[in-house]
Each structure stands twice: as C-alpha cells, then as structure tokens.
Amino acid sequence: MQQQLEHQALDFFQQSFASFYQHSIAVDTASRVTWISDSYQTFLALDRSPVGRLITEILPNSFMPRVVSSGTPVLLDMLNINGQWVVVSSFPLKDKSGQISGAFGFVAVDQMQRIKPLLERYAPLQLQLKKAQQELHASRRARYTLSQCIGNSVSMKRLKQQVAQAAGYDLAVMLQGETGTGKELFAQALHNLSLRSNGPFVSVNVAAIPEGLLEAEFFGVSPGAYTGADRKGREGKFKLAQGGTLFLDEIGDMSLELQSKLLRVIEEKEFESLGSNRLQTVDVRIIAATCQSLEELVAAKKFRPDLYYRLTTLPLNLPPLRERLDDLPNLCERLLDEIVISHNGHYRQLSIDALELLGHYHWPGNVRELKNVLQRACVATDDEVIEPALIRQVLPHFEAGDMASSSRRHQLNLAHHSLPSLAQTMQKAEREAILSALGSTSNHKSKTAQVLGISRASLYEKMRRLGIQ
Fold this sequence. Notes:
Blueprint: H1 2-20, E1 23-28, E2 33-36, H2 38-43, H3 55-58, H4 64-70, E3 74-81, E4 84-94, E5 100-107, H5 112-139, H6 154-167, E6 173-176, H7 183-193, E7 201-205, H8 211-219, H9 237-240, E8 245-249, H10 256-268, E9 270-272, E10 279-281, E11 285-290, H11 294-299, H12 305-311, E12 314-317, H13 328-342, E13 349-350, H14 352-359, H15 366-380, E14 385-386, H16 388-394, H17 406-411, H18 419-440, H19 445-452, H20 456-466
Parallel strand pairs: 6-11, 6-12, 7-8, 8-11, 13-14
Antiparallel strand pairs: 1-2, 1-5, 3-4, 4-5, 9-10
Helix pairs in contact: 6-7, 13-15, 14-16, 15-16, 18-19, 19-20
C-alpha cells in the first residue's frame, strides 16, 4: 500500500512538473547551455538551438551563473524575459562526488493568469528599485576629473603627471599635503582615470568619526550584533566600495588597534562584520590621505610601520598654494565663477591690485581658505570688480606677519612689476579662447558658454569686458 501511494505521488509530481515547468534549460559550470526544452526555445523566439552558447547571451539577467558559482538555488524569483515578467527557479546540479556540475532552470507557465495581478504590481516596484539603485550608484561616483584640478605651474603639472601614472597601477596611493590642498579632489580624479572608474568611490574621514564607531563604519554590523543594533544589519564602507575605491582621509588619526585590522584587510582581502564570524572577501583599491607627517608618526610609534609601507606604495605630495602662486589668477577666476553660479549672482572679477595683494599672503588654509576669502568678498559688495580694500577687510589679520616672503614672490613671478604683463597675457588668452569657441559654435552663446565651462552670464560679462561683439 505504501509503495502504491509513493508511486502515485511520484506520478502526480512528474505530471505537475511537466505541465507547470514546460520551459526548462540546463547549463554547465561555465554557464554554457547544454540542453533546452523545445517549448522554452519557442518561448524565447530562438530560430536555432542555443546549446553551446553562454546563457547570458540569451538571457542577460539570468540567475543561473550566480547559482553555478554560489551553489545556492533561486526559488520562485521574478525575471523579465522579452518584456514579460515570469516566475523562475534555478537549482545547482551536482555530480556523484558532490561537486557542482552545472545548473537547471525552469519557467512557470501554468496558471500564469493567477499570478498576473502580482506581476503587474511587481513590475513597477522593480522599476522603482532599479531607479533607486541607479541614484545610489550615482551618489557614490567620483565627481571630479583631472581636468578640473586647476593649475599649470611646474609643481601642478608634475603632480597631474604622477596622478595619471598612478592611475594605471592597481596599488595603494598615499596623498600627502596640507589642509585645503585638494586631496579628495585628486583622489576622485585618480579613481576616474583608473580601471575601477565604473565602480563606486567611497570616502571616509577618519578624523570625523568617533573612534568607537570606526570599526563598524569600516566593516559593517551584522544583524543584532549588540543592543540597539539594526535587525537588518548595516553594510560597512569596505562592502560599499566593492570593486571600486575606498578613500581614507586623515589616516594619521586612526588608532593603532584599527590600523592592525586595516592592515589585515589589505593583506588578506577579507574581513568580518562586527558581531559576525563569517569572512567576507573584498576587492577595493585604497587611496589614503593625510596632512601629517606619517614618518614622524611612525618614529613616535603612533603609526604602524608595516601599514605605512603598505599605504605608501605610490606616494604623491600635493604642493601648498604658497608654492604655486602662478596658479592664483586661474584659481581665482574659476572659484569666482563657481561662487557666482552657486549663488545666482552677477559676474565678479579681481582687480590687478587685488590679485597682487592675494599673491602676498601665505595661505595657511590653501585653496579652501582662498575660496572662503572670495566668498566673503562677494557677499560684502555688489561691485563687479573686487578691490584691495575689500580684500584687506575680509582678511583682518593680513598685516600680522602673514605676508609671503619677498624672495618667494620674486621666485614665483608675482612681484608687483610683473603682474600687469601677466594680466595682459591672461586677457589675450581669454579673448582668443572666447573667439575660438564662438567660431566653433556659429556664435551660439549658450553652446559657447558650455564649451568654455562657464555660465552664460559670465560669458556675456567677459565679452563686454573684452570688447567682443
């Protein structure tokens, strides 16, 4: 009696399976199709057998490669095939020794009308999820490129060349420079030049996060790891940066305990989330940055020498603004344009005397301080031209020993007698650039402004100032 019931159950299962999963397909360990049912080939509108082809050539979003690589089945999930949402399942196939030999997949075709309302609700939700994922991915993309790093001085040309060279090697990079020199800007530019440019760029400011939270921030938290922890857990920065770049700013402020854990991740390429015993593999490129002397920190036993050697495979030194004052005119122009655009203001420019005055300051805060000074100057006046008196007003400590040395000003060609010719050279170059852009766009002002990378209002102001009709 028991055997009869077993046979009846098996027959019923086979009949149900044959009717419900008529559309089926099998792949090998390389995810190449080894077999396909006639009905599924017809459903996919294939004029000839796909046997031997990669499953992703036929179904780009197929779950089967994942099943083959992980050994984990996919049960009753949704898949869009030729614009139609269907319910699919996929199972790993194993040989006699228990090794994965491929995967078998099915598409539910019976009773499709019953699940049609579910599919109609699922489709827009899937689109919303895809849109949210795209927005999240965009938020983790590096915004800056090397062309946006302003400067043609000798030191900046050398730095840009080094960044371009470093981008070609998938090794750790250390950016060393004073506060405000643009370390994250160059980190993003390096990422965008590298083979990881399509991956995420995730930034962590070590100094801005309390030491007790840094480990969770780096490695994530498993569900219920501690009282009050999210039941769903939380991904850490290493997981978020998978396949891309992790930028560690102010690395010199990291504790020795966390330094040892970071070193292990770099060497072993694996980590454990807080509260978890499961190892996760990771593939990220580390770009670190500091305004401190790591050599001195190593000597003082505040920074691990082994981690120092790991992170400084490709060291890059960012020059302070006082050592590249030749870039000051271009920097000021770009920053003023950015300020005007972000605040919907009108065109602003520095007088030659005001530019000379800025060239006498030693800029301890570098480009960040320069931007702050220009912002304050723009707020303090409605005049188009910013004069020296206003610069002195927004730099109240200007006379308190903050002047750059006369030898430095002479070395960088920013002495008083050289500035007029510099300004004239800039005007000539600016005029030629605008005329060239106008010619290439058939005098179309909006397109010309776009080509030049400035606002249309700035373009009109420059044309008026330069006498271009």
